[in-house]
Amino acid sequence: MVTEQLIEKFSTAARNVGTEVCQFETLAAAAEYVAAHLSGVLLVPSFASGVRHQLSETLTKVGISVEETLSRETAPQAQAGITGVNFAMADTGTLALESTAEDIRLATTLPEIQFALLDPQKILVDGLAAVEPMRQLHQRDPRNYIAYVTGPSRTADIERVLTIGVHGPKQLHVLLVPKLSSDLLEM
Predict the structure, then answer these.
(1) Beta-bridge partner residues of 116
(2) Band of pLDDT at residue 152, cut at 50, 70 and 90
(3) Is the residue at 183 inside a domain?
(4) The CATH number of the domain where 24 resides is what?
(5) pLDDT by residue (tens digit) across 25-39?
(6) What torsion do the CA atoms of 112, 41, 11, 150 make, to the nearest 10 degrees?
(7) Confidence grade of residue 144 (pLDDT, cut at 50, 70, 90)
(8) Is 22 among the domain residues?
(9) Percent of the chain having pLDDT more than 90?
(10) Of 42, 37, 156, whose CA–CA distance to 108 is shortest?
């Protein structure tokens, strides 16, 4: 399946579960989008592609208040968090994030908004195609934490009343940006 077909399949599946999916040509354009959807502090943990592409500096240039020193005390006050993505699965619109580092988990679970930077080359067809990269992640570090994220956080009570954002972000924005990283083991 060609990349455009995978992007469309992923985008449709992700939107069906409440995710905003947007494509950008550059990281600077994605930063403008983040700035337009944010009025508070943005948590920016350290991750390889973000460091390599100077994500914090790019976000700061468009006027975003960036917090790079994440702690359990400061993270809940932030409006949003941003991270990379190891890979995604087109059939369900699911993101896979290697989240062993606590600052990644803080940025993706505590704020009300999560922004996820995804290189379109990292969209896989389905969960079966994810078996090999998952195996490699676990071989690299058998005690790692992998988060599968499918849409904003949701839960339902015994009466089947759906509530969004109780155990995580109320909004999930996937920002498709080419040339961030094609390495499925790198966030």
Answers:
(1) 83, 174
(2) confident
(3) no
(4) 3.40.50.10420
(5) 999 999 999 999 999
(6) -40
(7) confident
(8) yes
(9) 77
(10) 42
Residue pointed to by tokens 């973000």: 50
Given phi > 0 = left and psi -120 to 50 = alpha, else beta, which region is 58?
alpha
φ, ψ dihedrals at 27, nearest 5°: -65, -35
Residue pair 14/21 in contact (Cβ under 8 Å)? The answer is yes
- The answer to whether residues 169 and 153 touch, using CB atoms and an 8 Å cutoff, is yes
Residue 98 is given by DSSP the state E
Q: Torsions phi, psi of 3, nearest 5?
A: -55, -45
Q: Is 146 a member of any domain?
A: yes
pLDDT at 13: 97
Count of domains for the chain: 1
- Residue range(s) defining the domain that contains residue 156: 3-176
Q: Which amino acid is at 74?
A: T
Which tokens belong to 133?
């990269």
Is residue 127 a contact partner of residue 93, using CB atoms and an 8 Å limit?
Answer: no
Cα–Cα nearest to 168, from 109, 119, 96, 83: 109
Is 186 contained in some domain?
no
Type of residue numbered 110: L
pLDDT average, residue stretch 78-87: 96
Tokens for 91, please give them.
């059939």
